């Protein structure tokens, strides 16, 4: 008959080699289950709508929207793969083996770092569009953007290999007992390549973008009454670019609010333990950005709201729906 001590072990037959169960209170575990499940479903669904919208409607096949499409793909994978696997860490023991444990962290680092790099590309896109509009069409052609997106994902795969190399070479080497899922990152590399460089680039680029946007907005207000027709068209284009920059600026601000706290805690030297409330909150904050992005599009992008309406009502199944005007 199983003793009380054995019932507290993840693998009772391994005796002292097994980890002990450290179960959460039932109410707390159920709350996390329900919350993560709902957010996972919402994240995957909303980002799938973004993917279908940009992929289906020809009018949305712009360079900027291709970057938004790449961002939506990474966010969709977070909702489809990362969040459901995060639920497994709620359990007091890890039963899926050392290799799956390592791969569990490998996939999130690819998708999350892809979101970061895509944000950098979006910031560069807006910087060129606002600060050097005459060279934008050639610099950010669709062919060039597709190449950048491909390089972005290849870089994220290599980046994940680098920071998880020790764990991939020997899965489970950092576990102290059977039933744990512990990995050790290359902290310096992760901090520099995953946070300091991309976040600094995003902030510097958007400070410059908003400075130029404010200057152009003032110039347009003072001269709009005196411009000729050709000049008027140029003003309209610039207003459109500035509006797009402001909208994407909101996305960047939300991104920084979600990504900065976990790294700031790491920089402070505070040791996070898997399973603690603070660790769970920081992970939740990090992953919630993937759900917030499409919500931002819903409120700030009229084309997204119209596209969603056409998708939900199945009008995209009609002939020539790809040519429908959604702007």
Automatic annotation (TrEMBL):
All copies of domain G-protein coupled receptors family 1 profile, residue ranges: 46-297
Membrane topology term: Multi-pass membrane protein
PROSITE patterns for the chain: G_PROTEIN_RECEP_F1_1, G_PROTEIN_RECEP_F1_2
Gene3D superfamilies per record: Rhodopsin 7-helix transmembrane proteins
Location in the cell: Cell membrane
Signal peptide: none
Membrane-spanning segments: 30-54, 66-90, 102-124, 144-164, 192-214, 248-269, 281-304
Any one Gene Ontology molecular-function term assigned to this protein's record: trace-amine receptor activity
This protein's UniProt keywords: Cell membrane, G-protein coupled receptor, Membrane, Receptor, Transducer, Transmembrane, Transmembrane helix
InterPro entries assigned: GPCR_Rhodpsn, GPCR_Rhodpsn_7TM, TAAR
Gene Ontology CC: plasma membrane
Homology family: Belongs to the G-protein coupled receptor 1 family.
Name the record gives this protein: Trace amine-associated receptor 9-like
